[in-house]
Fold each of these.
Amino acid sequence: MSTPDIILRDLHKQYSLHITMGHGYKLILTNLMRGKFFQKRIHHVLRGISFTINRGESVGIIGRNGAGKSTMLGLMANVMQPTSGELRLMRPVFAMLELGSGFHPDLTGRENIIMNGVLLGLHKREVLQKQADIIAYSELEEFIDQPIRTYSSGMLARLGFSILVQLDPQIFLLDEVFAVGDTHFQAKCRRSIKALKESSDTTIVLVSHDMASVRELCSRCIWIEDGLVKMDADTEGVVAAFELAGENEGDNQ
Amino acid sequence: MFKKDFRYYFDLYYVLAQKEFKVKYKASIIGYFWSVISPLIQGLVFFLAFGIFMRFPQKNYLLFLLSALYPWQWISNSLSHAPKVFLSNPALVKKIYFPRFFMPTTNVFQEMIHLLFALPVYFLFVLLYGLPLSPALIVYIPLMLLVTYITVASLSVVFAYVNVYVRDLENIIPLGLQMLFFLTPVIYPVTAVPEKIRLILYCNPFFSLIMTWRSVLLEGIMPWDSLGIALLVALISFAFGAYTHKHLSWKLAELL
């Protein structure tokens, strides 16, 4: 029995770029002469995306740079609004579009855990309960009371990822968050995400360029190209087709 | 999308306000003491310039000055920072969803804490002058904090949102506030303004607010008529803020 968790129906997203002084006086003057002060350039990123993701599925989103993957995830995370079409999320969403977004360099690791946890949608009380686990998972006990501007980028990513795995999410949106830390920590991350994947209650949507992670963590895969769904099937088939397309293109150049 | 409970929004407000406050003095040696020392020193400089050098014929000039200057600084610091709140934290807007108006409004709250540090300095001066402190202040000050917060937070929302669309605002607002400081009776009394043009002062949205603050802090009296006008300004600002939030907030992540 499958219950839908995420439903996208004919989803469109356009960005309009307003022309301002920053684009140069010449452009503004030519536009004025044509009688248009607020000339817009429209960039049509998503051109009608439809699919349904069911509860418990783990779905990889792949595609080339600029295909619209991150825009789509941003829409699902409610950071942006679609231009038209329907987007329905049936359960609360935890979106990690970037590891540690909202970290403040001058706050300590501990303070950032609390802030980030609350920003991601937890009550402060819940974050405090999980704080010990988060710190233990990150293996950063020694540095946790230092301001994070003293951390290396690997350490920052570890802190961000540790918050993420302790969230206990229902719908989980992840954008390129795997290449973190050393191999030891990466293996640990994969194990944690895999454990989430095994649970029938957690729905995972993962945007990635790393086909190995997609193969390992997702059972279904959606290939986005030029703002449209090019292929939506089981991971093996889609990844193989995507890689073949990539190679062919490489040959042509 | 998903309704979160009141408790969550309280926590969110709290962590954001706390962050601003902690970050402000994080790397400084005397830290929070700056919240007391800087209003003290600023007050004394103004007193030196206008009370002693220019000799405004005003009784207890220092108290007269500070009773309006400290509230003004809260308003002014909040509003001059407001246009930059989104632009200085783009990751928060682009990568995480939460109601956007939390960012400008928590900033106003954080600035209010500095006023709460400055008020004891003011009361100290009142006692040094050998003047009594009215017990009614316990009621009047929270009331004034609330009215001022509504006004300033609403305007901050407007400035923060609009500046993402038209980034000229972050240059206009500090300039405007500087002019408004001299056009508001903070360092001089209302009576210094010629009677014929005194009504023009009401065009200044902060005029009634500042006059009410002065009356409350200096005399311990609540001028209800002036509070009424301040409240009206607060409600109008709130309407502007709500309108701006409704129409501009959805697009912020794209424009940053």
Note: The CA atoms of residues 121 and 135 of chain A lie 19 Å apart.
Amino acid sequence: MYPVLQIGPLALQFPGLLLLLGVWAAVLLAERRARREGVHSGALSNLIFYALIAGLVGARLGHAMRFIQLYFENPLGLLALSPTTLSLPEGLLAAGLTGWIYHYRAGLPLWPTLDALTPGLAAVMIAIGLAHIASGDAFGSPADIPWAIRLWGARRHPTQIYETLAAALIFASTLRRPTPYPFPGYTFLRFTALTAAARLFLEAFRGDSLLMLGGIRTMQVVSLAALLLALLGMHLLATRTQAADSRLGL
Amino acid sequence: MRSIFLAWLKDRRRWALLMTAVALLGAIWTATSSASPQETTQGRIPGPRQGFLAPDFELELLGGGSFVLSELRGSPVILNLWASWCPPCRLEMPALDTVYAEYQDQHLQIVGVNITAQDSEGAAAGLVRAMGLRFPIALDREGGVARLYQMRAFPTTFFIDAQGVVQRVIVGGPMSELTLRSEVEALLAGVD
């Protein structure tokens, strides 16, 4: 665990640096994959750039909406460089919406674009795992197992290592593009299904789960829904491609 | 393997079987891995991080008297760990003082813990006098609180709710007055 990199008077947030590295790797990977998916790499880079900017603006506006009176009194706070006054849900929503609008306006094909973005998303998942190792977040429940790690006053499941290993395996699976390619959207939906399945399984070992009624872990319910949706999407795209191939006599 | 999976995806009946099996296994795993609040941080295990109970300690105050963190239970608390030689610590002191004065009637407590083991009592007292700080300053002469709170950088600020649970940790600074006030509003509203 190493949450802060102290360089003289400068306290750098190590998990934040790892996430930035993940985003940088994601941009490089997306540009490389774009050519293989038949997506214009320049347009894809623009999509990522606009989504990142919109994410930052949305995250700040989301925070401002929660504390609107404070921002009325100090409007310059909207421009502050502080990452502590950003709101993640609104940021993700703004980034997603902007990406959607840009893909539509630039005429980027939806599923090949998502396929091109997938190795980058998988790299970000590894970066998130490494950031959790550095910060000690996403920690495991207390466990009496030989590979338990001492963290936050107890011997715990090393869930940060589990999630990083799972993310690395999923990342590796996104690198190879199968030939013949089953259908556009295959890489993205397989990544979604595998990531959801991994979270569904690994959440059981977490010590910081948000619980619902009856002690059910919220993220397991969300992951199971995402897994089923991904499988539904794969079924629909597979049968649609099969029907189109039959019409063409392939 | 992939071709079998793809064949299952394309066949309506096999796909329905796959979905049912996944849904069933997922639901069973979710049900068997349900947790009691005691198994998660909602069980209030002491620890210097978000979601944990703020570790208790007792320190002497600058100017006399003593301070016990758990005695402030019932009020939201901001614990600011600082040293006089640290520029960001000095820069955020006026904002802390303003917020302390503004929210005192809402029972907000702000305590500056001077890590005296890495500072000097005289320098700390001089800074408090020069800035006219009104909130209490506790003296961590042995560095016990810095160790207990696993401090890694100056300043580090803990936002603790009325139940004594850490809701936010901000490492580094200086925090702006807006950052502080938004965190305080969240603490007082009982939201994250």
Note: The two ends of chain B are 46 Å apart (CA to CA).
